[in-house]
Amino acid sequence: xxxxxxxxxxxxxxxxxxxxxxxxxxxxxxxxxxxxxxxxxxxxxxxxxxxxxxxxxxxxxxxxxxxxxxxxxxxxxxxxxxxxxxxxxxxxxxxxxxxxxxxxxxxxxxxxxxxxxxxxxxxx
Length: 124
What we know:
The protein is an all-beta fold and 124 residues long. It is 0% helix and 49% strand.
């Protein structure tokens, strides 16, 4: 499965931005997630949504500000970011893993086989 992110850019603190991730094929069952990374730091899990259940989970740092959603008809999932902060500045990556049962927690990079190339978000 190939993943392509879009929607990154520069935004002022307190503003909003929505990222999108388009998959080359529909993931009927699995997890779709967003991670982010800044130079010199490990990639950090941001949010995840399961398919088909639609169950979501968020990192504490973004709870109440970010919302993950998906549109299976478009093979796309989104990360809506509101009230952004300078510390949200990072390269954002989408990730996906097909399956029903998972041995690794959603926050683990190793839980995902498919990754996008990343989209930069800069908050000033």
